[in-house]
Each structure stands twice: as structure tokens, then as C-alpha cells.
């Protein structure tokens, strides 16, 4: 695994699964084939499957270690969970072993931070133990954006038990609240001196990005504010999974502008391969320079 250093902190990606998924025309309602083809030369095979044009997606967590804390940002899908997506259903991956191999056993985690509460960002919040979903990281506080949690709590009242976010609200979020491990946060919350939070709503009502800053350097953990690198070049291409596509596009452009201004290392939740990079302005849009360290 690649360990990146940022000031006195380290950043490491731990992957749960990775592979081809949707074709771009299905993923992005505003998809334009010519615009996509103009970028395809650098996206194949790392980000686009050769011959099919299917988008390659990774589901991973970020381990951030500061001088004070060990933090996980987003917790993937989790094992033994019943999901409608066949590729995500009843997984049995060695994810926890991978964390441990990176010097991050479950007991060492101080904070779990979820950029939002979709199914593929909360799964390892809990594990199955004696028929019950219990917190995977026993010494951690789990930080959920207050507005995000309130939205899905309200949706559960409307949709019913086990229906929200493919059941993940019930098996991966509520058990954390019931165990007294959840902390509802606003954007002024600062769990560590090196971390700040910023709202970028649209993909979900309470989507946040988490910024790490030390010694004049910065990284931005952007969750699903973008799913695929093509959205750096076409920030108006919101995914079909966005709660409000217009708002998501505005937030995405704002986040990209913020990354340019701060020269932040962009660390999204689903970019495979060269999974982080620096955003540069290009005309009325942006491009990405990959960090391959």
C-alpha cells in the first residue's frame, strides 16, 4: 500500500473491492460521448474498462494518522450484509486484515468519519457478532453530519424499517447510535487540530468533505462529491445517484475550485489505480495531475 505523508500526518488507502461497473451513459444523465472519448486515452485501462467503456470503481477507506489520532474516512460495504446489488451482497472480504496489515487494527481507531451515509460508505461501521450488529471499532467515536443523519432518520420513518439506503441505515448506522458511539457534527466541529469539515450538499443533503492540513500542505477527502475522474473535466456531470443533481454540480465545481486555491491533494472515495491527484484549472473546467508517490 502507498503511504503518503502530509506534514506530520500520513494518508493510506485500503481497498475493499474494485472493478468495472456502470457504463457512463447510465451513470451520468448529462453524458456526452464525444466529450468522454476526448479523455478516454488516459482513462483506459485504469479508470475505464477497455472495449466496454464501463467505469472502473474502487470502494475503499482512507486511514489518516495524525500525531494525536487514527481516523478512518468512510467504511465501505462490510461483510455479511444483505444487499440488492449482487456484487455487494453478503461479502466476505479480508478488509479488517488489510487494515491491520497497514498498522491499523480495529482497536486503534479513534474516529470513524463518514462523508455521507450511503450504503458503500458505512458498511464496516458494524460487524456481525452473535447474530447482532455491533461497532467494528470498539474504541472509536463515529462522526455523522447532523443534517445528513436527520435526513435519513426522517426517510426511515417514511420508507420503513430496513428500507433506507438498501438496509444500511438499520444495520450500519442505527447500531452505532444505539451503542452510544455516534457524535452528530456540524461543519465547525474539529475532531483533530489538523482536520476541518466543509459542507458540499447535493449528492446527499448533508454530504461533507474532510480537509487535512499541516505545515502548509492540504488534502481533501471528498467522498462522492465526485465518483469518477471524468467529473473533474466535466463537473456538471452529476451521477444518477445524486439526491439533487443541480446542487451536486454546484458543490462539485466549488470543491474543485477550493482544491485549486489550496493546492489540496484530492482523495475521492471511488477513484481506482492512481487514486489521488492535484486539481488544475483548464479553461472553464479542470484537469487532474495524478500523485503516483
TrEMBL record:
Q: Which UniProt keywords apply?
A: Hydrolase, Metal-binding, Zinc
Among InterPro entries, the record links this protein to: MBL_superfamily_lactonases (IPR051013), Metallo-B-lactamas (IPR001279), RibonucZ/Hydroxyglut_hydro (IPR036866)
Extract the CDD domains matched here. metallo-hydrolase-like_MBL-fold
Every Metallo-beta-lactamase domain range: 58-270
Q: Can you tell me which family this protein belongs to? A: Belongs to the metallo-beta-lactamase superfamily.
Among PANTHER family, the record links this protein to: QUORUM-QUENCHING LACTONASE YTNP-RELATED, QUORUM-QUENCHING LACTONASE YTNP-RELATED-RELATED
Name of protein:
MBL fold metallo-hydrolase
**Source species taxonomy:** Bacteria, Pseudomonadati, Pseudomonadota, Alphaproteobacteria, Hyphomicrobiales
Amino acid at each position: 500500500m502507498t503511504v503518503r505523508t502530509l506534514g506530520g500526518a500520513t494518508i493510506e488507502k485500503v481497498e475493499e473491492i474494485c472493478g468495472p461497473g456502470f457504463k457512463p451513459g447510465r451513470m451520468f444523465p448529462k453524458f456526452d460521448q464525444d466529450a468522454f472519448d476526448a479523455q478516454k486515452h488516459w482513462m483506459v485501462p485504469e479508470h475505464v474498462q477497455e472495449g466496454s467503456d464501463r467505469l472502473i470503481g474502487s470502494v475503499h477507506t482512507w486511514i489518516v494518522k495524525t500525531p494525536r489520532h487514527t481516523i478512518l474516512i468512510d467504511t465501505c460495504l462490510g461483510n455479511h450484509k444483505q444487499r440488492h446489488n449482487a456484487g455487494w451482497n453478503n461479502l466476505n472480504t479480508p478488509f479488517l486484515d488489510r487494515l491491520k496489515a497497514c498498522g491499523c487494527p480495529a482497536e486503534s481507531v479513534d474516529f470513524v468519519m463518514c462523508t455521507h451515509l450511503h450504503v458503500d460508505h458505512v458498511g464496516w461501521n458494524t460487524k456481525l457478532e452473535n447474530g447482532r450488529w455491533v461497532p467494528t471499532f470498539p474504541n472509536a467515536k463515529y462522526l455523522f453530519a447532523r443534517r445528513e443523519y436527520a435526513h435519513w432518520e426522517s426517510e426511515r420513518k417514511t420508507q420503513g424499517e430496513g428500507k433506507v439506503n438498501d438496509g444500511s441505515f438499520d444495520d450500519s448506522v442505527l447500531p452505532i447510535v444505539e451503542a452510544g458511539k455516534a457524535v452528530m457534527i456540524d461543519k465547525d466541529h474539529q475532531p483533530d487540530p489538523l482536520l476541518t469539515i466543509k459542507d458540499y450538499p447535493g449528492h446527499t443533503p448533508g454530504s461533507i468533505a474532510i480537509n487535512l492540513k499541516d505545515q502548509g500542505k492540504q488534502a481533501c477527502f471528498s467522498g462522492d462529491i465526485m465518483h469518477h475522474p471524468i467529473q473533474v473535466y466535466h463537473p456538471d456531470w452529476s451521477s444518477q445517484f445524486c439526491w439533487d443533481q443541480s446542487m451536486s454540480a454546484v458543490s462539485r465545481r466549488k470543491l474543485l475550485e477550493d482544491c485549486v486555491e489550496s493546492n489540496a491533494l484530492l482523495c475521492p472515495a471511488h477513484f481506482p489505480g492512481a487514486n489521488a491527484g492535484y486539481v488544475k484549472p483548464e479553461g472553464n473546467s479542470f484537469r487532474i495531475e495524478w500523485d503516483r508517490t
